Structures are given as structure tokens and as C-alpha cells.
Amino acid sequence: MSEELQNKLRAGITAAKNGDRTTARQLLEQVISADEDNELAWLWLASSVNTLSERRACLERVLQINPNNVRAQEALARLNTSGETSAAPAADQARLRDQINRMRAAQTTPESGDNPGALPINTSLLIGISLIVVLILMIVAIFSVLRNVITPPPTEVIFVASETPTVIVTPTITETPIRGVDLSEITRSAPTLPPTLTATWTAIPSITPTPTQTPLGTENFTVLYTSLNSGAAQPETYLLSLDLSFESLAFNQMRDPAFSPDSGRIAFVRDVVLGEDQVVSEIFIVDSNGTADDEGRRLTTFNVDNTRSPSFSPDGQWIVFSSSGATGLDEELWLVNVDGTGLRQVTDNELVDRDPAWGADGRIAFTTDQYSPGLTEIALLSLPEFLIPPPTDISEPSTIRLTDSSGNNYAASWSQNGRWLVYINAESATVSGVYVIDLQQPDNGRLVTQDNFSAEHREPAISPDGQWVAFISNREEGLFQVYLSDRRGRETIRLTNNGRDDQAVIFRPIPFNVLEQASN
Predict the structure, then answer these.
(1) CB neighbours (10 Å) of residue 220?
(2) Do residues 362 and 472 both lie within one domain?
(3) Centroid of chain to Cα 496
(4) pLDDT one-digit tens code per residue, 166-223
(5) Which of 28, 219, 368, 414 could staple 45 via S-S, CB 3.0–4.6 A?
(6) Around 297, how many Cα atoms within 13 Å sit in the side-chain half-sphere?
(7) Residue 43 maps to which CATH number?
(8) Closest by alpha carbon to 182, among 171, 166, 167, 193?
(9) Are 243 and 219 in contact (CB under 8 A)?
(10) Same domain, 245 and 153
(11) The domain containing residue 206 runs over which residues?
């Protein structure tokens, strides 16, 4: 294989791992057009196509090339257990091959008009969908007319006071879901907010409300967020109060920050220049009360460019992170002591394992494609007791699947009290949403960003008490900035307006006595 083709294959696999299906498909199909028997390209193309039958066609092509490919065998077995037929329709295989042939011809004869790399449009499907949409609109219009005729105008507005439908309350003033912040008076550039406004509620006397957790006001929380100036090589880190009463530069050249449980230290990633053309990423640690110029202490020397996502153990003595390590191949989970000793690999497979987040109960949430090649889910990993301190025996850590939904699920983050988990679900490379899971009642999660279904959302974080969710989004002006929502997604406000490209946000832990008081 030529060096140019190898570069396209590597770039296509990287795009598939990052959820960019469009780019991955384009690059991998170019590889296959030049090398039709490229087993790896067909395997990763299976994660980038749009339908199950197309995925099956790719996987069966892998097995035609190499009948002993275990990943393709396992992926086909999972598809078959979902109720689909065991063989890919001949039409799908023919259509994929036809597309590859058209791409091969396009390399010598440029096409005009439609994109030659796109799949044919199913005209019958589009007509059917259009008829369904027209029918739904007609039903909605008829229902609206009937409702206006038979239903009198409402005389009052009622709200549910908690997540359980046990209390109906009447607000005496306009509700501000994010307490301590008056959304109507926030300006984009105002550094200081007006006095705290707390809504007053009048409950219906005949109903006794069920006790619920009282959320702490935004003035109780501080976030650390990373932000990249235009033209800068590495991001800066800023400390910001959620009530917007202060903001200050905390550190230079820091990304993927993570607080220790006592908030005294920060683990982070910094890019290290080895030569003119080589930049690698390594794990560092620094005191959180240091100055902006503190360089911190380096913990790893892998010399690869995908080391990322450090997270502290509940006792603050260990850091878990993801990296391809010395091999430079698939990303795995690793452990290192805060003093830089005891480096060891936690997972060891041919899968994608990344973005670990250590919860208060000792479990590690991480992103993996072990359940379907190229499609990521959130899983929970429990480490054997002997891994901390160093092991005397060897055994596999246990893993359970947490999410099971369409698209890619990734970037999990815990609340400090260990009850709530937030993560990203992406149906495409440019559209994604923030979801939250109650670990006491696990399900596929509740959508937080229900006010926006067209933007890209990144790196969510949930407050120590589980009531507020901060995240990065390009929902306004296409610029990635920090936003804040209550956990139920009732209303969202913008926290930053700095003209930079914000990259990640985390909450600073609060004292446990304050956290316990809020939970009682």
C-alpha cells in the first residue's frame, strides 16, 4: 500500500473513532476504490454507513477477505440477534460495490453536479415520508380548530413543583429556574448580576408536598473552563463563578482539566513539543491554588498525541486516563499514581476505550465501542480491589453497559455526590445533545438541551449536587461558549461571551458538609 493510501486509511479510522461519519466514509471509500481487498478499510466503513443492511454488507465483505476476523464475526452476530436477516441483501452489496466503482472512475473522469461519493437517494422513501408529514400537519390543523371552538381560554397557569406529580403550585411571580440568576436582566457583557431573585410559590392547601432536594443557588458553585484564543497553540484556563460575580485567568497551556475530590489539585493534559514536526500530549498535575504560570509536574512520557481525559480516584491518590500508550495503536485506559509511580494498563483489547471519569462509588464511566464497532456507548468499569495498591494477581476488571441508544454516546461526567451522570449523544458529527442519567433509576437518560436540536454540544459537567448542567455549545453565532441549564432542561443561559473558542468545563468540588446539607 502506498504511503498516501496509508495516510488516508489512518485519517479515515481517526474520523470514524471521533464520530465524523461523513469524512470517515469519504476517506475509507477512497482507500477501497484503490484496494478493494483492504480488510481494515471495510471494517471501519461498517461503522460509517447509514443503514444496518449496508453495515452487514461491509462486515460480510470483511469475512470474505478474512473469514477469521473476530471483530467482524462478533458485529455480525450482534446484528443477527437484533432480528435482522443473517445475510446482507444482494442489492446492498451491489450498491456499495457500484459506488466504489463510480469513485474509482471519478479519479480519472471528474464528475459535475451531485456529489459522486453520496449514496443514491431512495425516492420512494422520500415520497412516503412527505405524505406522512402532510397527513400529520392536516391532523394538527384540524385539532387546533376544534380546540379553539370547544375549549375556553385558560384562566391560570399551573406548574409542577417537583419531578414527581405530587404537588401543583401557582407561581406568584415569573419563575426563574436557575436560582440566583435573573435571566431577563442578564446582558451579554455584564460582569455582575443584579441581586438574587428567588421565586415565591403558593401551594394548593389540599395537597401535602413530597419532600424533595432543595438545590443550592448558583452563587455556591464555581467552574473551571478552558478556552483557546485565535492563533494560540494551547488553551488557557479560567475560573468563573456561576452567578457571574467574578472571572479570572487560572492557568496557561492546560486542557482536559480535572479536580481532585478535595479540589486541592488539578490533573490536566498539556501538549509537549519534541521536535519541529512532533507534538505529543502528556498528563500533568498542579496545585489548584497555584499561579497562572505554574507548569505543574509531568506524570507520563508516552510520546503519543492521544493521551487525554485524566480523572482522580475517590481517595485522590490515583489518576485514570486514556492513551494508546507505547504501542500507538488503539486507545486504552491507564492508571498512574499522583506521584508518577505505579503506571499500569487497565484495559487491553482492539477496541476504543477512552474518556474515563471516576465516580464517587469507585466505578469508572468510559466511552467504548465494544458493543458495536465504530459506534460508542457509555460503560461502567469496576476495578478489582488489588489494582489499588499494585496488583499481586492478574484478572480482568468487570464492565457493564450503561447506555443503549442510536448514534454515538460519549464524554461522561459524574456529579460529586455520585448519583447523576451526564453525557453526549450525537446522531451526526455536527448535531448532538446533552443527556443526564439518574444512577438510582438508570435508563437511557433525559435530554437536557431540549431547547435546541440543531447545534453541537460538547463536554458536559454536572454540579456537585446534581442540579445544574454546564456544557459547551455553538448554538449562538457558531462560536463555542459555556452554557448553563437546570437538570430538567427548562431554561438555558449563556455564561461566557469572550470571542474565544471554549473547549471544556468542570465544576469545582464543594465541602462535603455543604453537599450533604443540600441532599437532606
Answers:
(1) 19
(2) yes
(3) 20
(4) 333 333 333 334 333 443 333 333 333 333 333 333 333 333 333 445 557 778 899 9
(5) 28
(6) 12
(7) 1.25.40
(8) 193
(9) yes
(10) no
(11) 143-212
